[in-house]
Every structure is written in structure tokens, then in C-alpha cells.
Design goal:
mainly alpha; single chain; 5 helices; 2 strands; extended; 145 residues; two-stranded antiparallel ribbon
Amino acid sequence: MKYKLTKNQRRGIRATLLLLDEALCTFERWAKGGEEKSVLHQTGNNLTAQQKRKILRRISSMRAVLRELKDALGLEATVRTAAEDIWTLCSGLREHLIELQGKHLHRYGKVHPDTTRYLDGKVESLLKDLETVSEIIKSNHRAGS
């Protein structure tokens, strides 16, 4: 049975359930033993084997409810490509990196000129690398079009 919803109701329900579904993917990655270890970002996986099994069972149960809701409410699945996710992250991170420049850090207090020069150089390097990643995505998209 299909339930009737307005376009806005469907969009609101779908947005929340999409966030939940994305979170389930993260939970699943951790329940399957995933860890992330980078320079500043690390997640240590301290889940026990029993917790992992229980989480995976609960994820399965929740996905069954999500499938039922998707069908009953006529919700569309979202297909996002890795390229779209990378491009979105690059766009958002650019503004955050700009805020690390010395002229913006002054809002938190006086910044020593040597620190400003050092940070500005490093931020500029990171911004260029981020732009390069964006260009790689764009060129891949153009090639695939």
C-alpha cells in the first residue's frame, strides 16, 4: 500500500531517513572492524565481538524498516557518486581553511607575524592541493560525460 504525502512531507521524511541510512553505513563499517588512522583524525575501534554482532543485527533490522518505508511512502533512493561527495567536501573545506589564515585568526587574539606567515603558507598549500583534488574530479566528470 502506498501512503499519500505532500511533496514537502515526502522530502522531509526522506531527508531524515537518508541521514539515518548514512549513519547506519558508518555503524556498519565500525561493526565490521573498521578504524581510521590519519594525521589528526583517528577512530579506535573498541567494540567487542558481541557488540559488533548485536549492532550488525540491529542495522539489518533497521534497514528492513527503511526498505518498507521507502516502498510504502514512495521514497526515492539517492545515488551519490564518490566524485560528488569529494567535490562537496572540497567546497565546504575551502572556507574552513581560509579561516585559518592569519588575518582571520586575529579574531581570537593577536597572532605573531611569524606565525601568520607560517600558517598562511601552509594554508595556501592545502588550498592548492584541495583545488587540485577538485580539478581531478572535474576532469574525471568531463571525461565520463
